[in-house]
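pls design
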């Protein structure tokens, strides 16, 4: 026994030393390189020399550093010095469903898979940094970039981001988690000054970034455009030094968003490493170019501060083998496996919102005719959204999918139903929003097709004229008169199914009650059509859960209920504080259209015997909630069981409950499993502004085992001592 113990001790000492040795070796290598650099060469690494590259240092074997968007696919090649695509034909790539769709799967394995595939494709395209994931909190339903982000809940964001980043970085590609911090609206995004309590920052807006950096080891962080408490994020000492460098011990690269730098000295001293995208013709005029050299020469900036930045970049380069190309992963592009991963992601994102009278799944062999209606039946979406847009190798639309799969066995009657009326949401002379005009000619055609078909499927929702970077939506209604279309089609054919293709919340009250089945299909990426048709046909089953609350109306949403969006005079105060998303709806007891975490299945599940391992816990304990879950239906399915926790009597206002754990459990008919969900007692703490620290108060906590924020299967009281 002793011998074994000695062996373990020896191994761990060796391992520790070899581990720290590699770290030391890396640091030694960095210092050696820096010693050989001129100041000009150092500074040349701290700013772009084109849209997406930084300068090489040939004599030191340091190549240009290649950065590329985006979070759900490797973006097509841009010209070096303008925002146009090169138009080359070898830069198509795999396009995954964007952020909120990934989150809707609640499947951490799929987040990993996505990281692996994007890493492979980034490497094949010779990219060193992938500018994602985008993880800003979905605060307002109107934010144009919600589709690209993940959720309203920091825990769900953290779990997805950790798995995506860790996987991506195993492929010698650096992730760059963005946008640090509180870039939660596109309205005035370049200048809006975001203000919030320290508690809201710590409990809601920071956790995703902290997990990505501390738990996942993200090698890059992108500073947001907006101001935070009065100072631009990229020159904000609290963000760049206190939080990023000191608290998170971040040793990677802190880069700016494109054209988000506003100073030389302030940004340099606030911890920013890399200036990208500045809109100045001559790269030498950029803040981190000649002005920085000048600042060093005039003694306003110590050269050691420049060295620290170069060291951060070299550290990431070394960790991703940029300096050791011979051993680096070469990657792969547009493989069948990659496309299959995109398909799986799309399938598992589909959320079944309503399914009365077993309308779904459709019995395709019994159907003789189907009306396929709506602009989103034929519209492709991969190529939209601005910086996260992807030139997908292909994109299957719902109409193509249903035609490919069932065109021979049934009559497919297509009708446009509604159409995209304008790229920019303009107001017509009478102040009406253009997109609210109803096109009765198109509706009549659609009604005619619906009348003569066994069933009608309306592919409705939004597109990247609304879900897009650089502007927010003006309202939450279905644009282009879709509500009227759906009401008319449903009158013509009671068997009307609506599939919403969109990336952010919409008002659904006007259609929900008119149709027997309602499905949220998201922007499903390149395999969108195949995925959603396979779920409708029952070849696959719906297992998605909403990653955000869908309010009945915009005014229910906290930021809007409090008039705290988009702010006044370029300043926005997050008055809802920690009550974001379901935290608000729960605590204010407001009934949303559909709650966070909601999604139905084609089968049914029974959750029973929910127990905790103890009744009383110490602050360093971990709580285990154990339960049985059985598939009591006739078809395969997966249930996402969510564990929320709420403190019964707290000294401060706390949300009724907060998500602390979840698991997605796949079960065949009749199959049952015993599942454990774990939460550390310390994770039940709240951020105490009085002591500027996390505080866990003794007393009763309620553990909610649920299948949505509203559908609670069990509540268990435990005591924290
Ligand atoms: C954009 C976006 C950012 C993107 C960058 C490069 O403006 O805010 O997410 O990665 O610029 O395209």
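designed seq:
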């Amino acid at each position: 026994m002793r011998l074994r113990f000695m062996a373990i001790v020896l191994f761990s000492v060796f391992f520790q030393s070899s581990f720290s040795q590699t770290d030391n070796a890396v640091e030694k290598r960095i210092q050696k390189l820096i010693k050989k650099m001129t100041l000009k060469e150092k500074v040349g690494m701290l700013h772009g020399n084109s849209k997406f590259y930084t300068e090489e240092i040939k004599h030191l074997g340091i190549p240009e550093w290649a950065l590329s968007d985006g979070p759900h696919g490797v973006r097509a090649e841009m010209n070096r010095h303008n925002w146009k695509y090169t138009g080359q034909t070898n830069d198509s790539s795999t396009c995954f469903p964007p952020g909120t769709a990934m989150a809707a799967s609640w499947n951490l394995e799929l987040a990993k898979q996505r990281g692996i595939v994007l890493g492979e494709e980034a490497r094949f395209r010779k990219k060193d940094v992938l500018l994602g994931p985008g993880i800003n909190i979905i605060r307002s339903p109107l934010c144009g970039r919600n589709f690209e982000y993940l959720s309203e809940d920091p825990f769900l964001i953290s779990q997805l981001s950790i798995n995506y980043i860790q996987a991506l970085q195993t492929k010698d590609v650096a992730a760059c988690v963005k946008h640090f911090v509180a870039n939660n609206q596109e309205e005035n995004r370049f200048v809006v000054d975001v203000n919030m309590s320290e508690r809201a920052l710590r409990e809601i807006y920071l956790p995703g970034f902290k997990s990505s950096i501390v738990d996942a080891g993200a090698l890059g962080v992108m500073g947001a455009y907006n101001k935070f408490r009065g100072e631009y994020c990229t020159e904000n000492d609290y963000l760049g030094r206190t939080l990023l460098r000191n608290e998170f011990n971040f040793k990677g690269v802190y880069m700016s968003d494109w054209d988000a730098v506003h100073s030389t000295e302030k940004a340099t001293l606030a911890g920013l490493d890399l200036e990208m995208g500045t809109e100045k013709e001559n790269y030498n005029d950029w803040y981190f170019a000649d002005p920085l050299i000048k600042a060093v020469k005039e003694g306003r900036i110590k050269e050691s501060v420049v060295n620290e930045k170069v060291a951060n970049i070299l550290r990431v380069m070394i960790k991703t083998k940029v300096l050791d190309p011979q051993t680096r992963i070469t990657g792969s592009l547009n493989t069948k496996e990659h496309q299959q991963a995109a398909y799986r992601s799309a399938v598992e994102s589909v959320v079944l919102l309503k399914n009365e009278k077993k309308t779904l799944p459709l019995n395709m062999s019994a159907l003789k005719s189907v009306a396929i209606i709506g602009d989103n039946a034929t519209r492709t979406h991969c190529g939209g959204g601005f910086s996260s847009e992807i030139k997908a190798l292909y994109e299957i639309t719902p109409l193509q999918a249903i035609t490919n799969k069932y065109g021979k066995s049934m009559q497919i009657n297509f009708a446009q139903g509604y159409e995209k009326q304008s790229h920019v949401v303009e107001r017509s002379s009478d102040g009406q929003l253009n997109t609210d005009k109803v096109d009765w000619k198109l509706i009549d055609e659609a009604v005619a097709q619906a009348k003569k078909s066994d069933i009608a499927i309306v592919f409705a929702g939004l597109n990247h004229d609304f879900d897009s970077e650089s502007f927010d939506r003006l309202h939450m209604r279905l644009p282009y008169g879709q509500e009227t279309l759906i009401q008319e089609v449903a009158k013509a054919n009671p068997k009307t199914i609506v599939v919403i293709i969109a990336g952010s919340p919409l008002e659904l009250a006007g259609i929900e009650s008119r149709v027997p089945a309602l499905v949220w299909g998201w922007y499903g990426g390149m395999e969108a059509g195949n995925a959603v048709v396979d779920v409708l046909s029952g070849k696959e089953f719906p297992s998605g859960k909403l990653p955000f609350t869908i309010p009945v109306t915009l005014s229910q949403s906290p930021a809007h209920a409090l008039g705290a969006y988009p702010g006044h005079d370029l300043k926005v105060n997050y008055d809802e504080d920690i009550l974001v998303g379901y935290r608000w709806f729960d605590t204010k007891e407001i009934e949303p259209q559909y709650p966070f975490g909601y999604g139905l299945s084609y089968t049914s599940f029974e959750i029973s015997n929910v127990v905790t391992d103890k009744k009383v816990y110490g602050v360093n304990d971990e709580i285990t909630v154990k339960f049985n879950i059985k598939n009591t239906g006739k078809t395969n399915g997966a249930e996402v069981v969510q564990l929320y926790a709420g403190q019964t009597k707290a000294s401060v206002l706390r949300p009724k409950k907060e998500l602390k754990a979840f698991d997605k459990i796949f079960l065949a008919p009749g199959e049952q499993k015993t599942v454990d969900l774990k939460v550390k007692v310390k994770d039940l703490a709240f951020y105490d502004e009085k002591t500027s620290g996390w505080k866990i108060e003794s007393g009763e906590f309620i553990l909610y085992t649920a299948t949505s924020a509203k559908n609670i299967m069990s509540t268990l009281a435990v005591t924290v001592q």
